[in-house]
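Deviations from the work plan: none for this task. Representative record:
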Amino acid sequence: MVRTACDACHRRKVRCSGGQPCANCSQATLTCTYHAVPQKKGPKGSRAKVISELRETQRQTNRHKIRSYSPDSSFDFNTSPLSPMRRRNPDVLSQQMIDGCIEFFFRHMYPTMPILHKGRLQEKVAREIDQSIEAYCLITSICAFMMIQPRMSLPGRPVGVRTNSDDLVSGKFTTASSLLEEVLRLRKAIDYIENPTLESVQTSLFLFACYFGLDKHNKAWYHLREATTLAQIVGMQDEPSYLSTDPVESIMKRRLYWLLFITERAYALQRHHPLTLHATIELPNPDEVPGDRQIINGFLHMINLFRPFDDTFIGLWNKARNDCSTAWLAQLQQQLSDALPPKLNSTETQAADIVTSQQWLRTMVWQLSITNGYLSSTSADSSMTFKYPIEIAKHLMADVRGLPQQALEVHGIGLIEKLFDVACTVTDVIACVPLDSSIFEIGPLEYLNQFLSLISNLRGGGSRFLPLLRAKISENLPSMATPVPKAVMPIKDEYVDEIASPLSTKPAPLVHPSPLVIRTATASLSDPSLVFSDISPGGSNASTPLGTPTVAAAIPHSMPRIQFDGRYG
DNA sequence: CCCTGAAGGGGATGGATGTT
DNA sequence: AACATCCATCCCCTTCAGGG
């Protein structure tokens, strides 16, 4: 018996002589390949999977038999002539799903991730998916990422009948998990680390995005670092590497590098991680792809925003150094203001991310300022005063108000987390800084109400962040009468397909603020660094085009870890 | 119709691995 | 260590298409 049969012999179920080419392939003039990936052997998961499966199907068919007798037509799929090990499992990744996911990606995600060419990707699906494990992994990881988008429906499932939101959610998340597992399994079989391609980098980025969305931040960071490391192995940080490749690929590669650049910086801020990528190559050109002008302009704005958050800032942020100054911080705030033109030349979707990121980054700089004791109540530069976050909140609300809800929702949990970060900072300011309320046309508390209202209305985060924000507010501002925003719409379930949502009329469970123990800032204002040292001096949300990282960071570090709802963890 | 060869279903066998 | 379970290989056999 041969150790591994070649792909053709496996498919033909004939004895394989081994070797290259094997006797059968040689006789049949076939290309003899050994691409098939052996599956892991031995039992996995719960015991007696097959038996329980059989039992379950028998139970179901027995029940059906009573009512009607119909020929079973559910086994006519999956006739693709692939070796069984590489064969797509149509239950998990059907053609329909691939098409649906690609369509969704280019309709909703492309403006924030303009790193794939639609035609090329479709060609890859048609030609390469069965031939190349790299291509298969890329497409599968894209589909997994689409599956965790709040607005994405599960392709191929009848929407409506018998689908309640829980089914849909768990269906989508189960699908996403299977797809992720599939990618990781297949990747083990190829030496993508020693011989990475552009696809490897893209796949790692999508894996990061998936785990980010699933709130699994160790895995997320691992894959982000994998993406940046592979990018460096491929040489993406060197300008000359963009000359030799095919023009379309070169364009997408350049954009990918900059997307990684932005993403890494946002994540570094949120999670106190170091940077690996720097601005070493030319920026993308807005005019190189017809129709992409606006999108790339928006993309350039994002790059501009994150560019100042270099090793120096991150070093200070992570307390690896301490040589900052008032002037430098004030200049950084100025840079953030200058990074954007008065009128954004971008899509609305991007504008949502850009303005939120800008205000969020200002909040980060402000936090660094206060942590290092550089703020003063009398500074002429408002960015160096204690009340600055209230100004930030005001701007943010003004910027966001003009945008359609959808433009905000597309960014998923990431954007909501940024909003949450800013709101938390504002809460702390209101709690700790004596405010002369006459200065503000609208009271700062009103901004908090607006944040609550906004977050509760956005799909994809309300149920995770709203209770946290409520808890934070009631802990720090007990005087603020139950800060329930007026006209709160029922929080729509984050993952309910929009078509299906009219059917699931049950208002999503309003999560009550759990009895969180938030350590309140108790020190006096005479020592501002103490006051705010436990307000996320680092851990806030960053906005990432992928959605921004997370909550826990924005919460005082001493706070116990919170189970949000256990569904995804 | 028969002959031939390919396809592929069924299943024996055995290796690998998780569970007890 | 014994056992259960899953997976891969490949033999055996039936089916079927194409040529005569």
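Confidence is low (pLDDT under 50) at residues 44-58, 60-90, 157-164, 482-569 of chain A.
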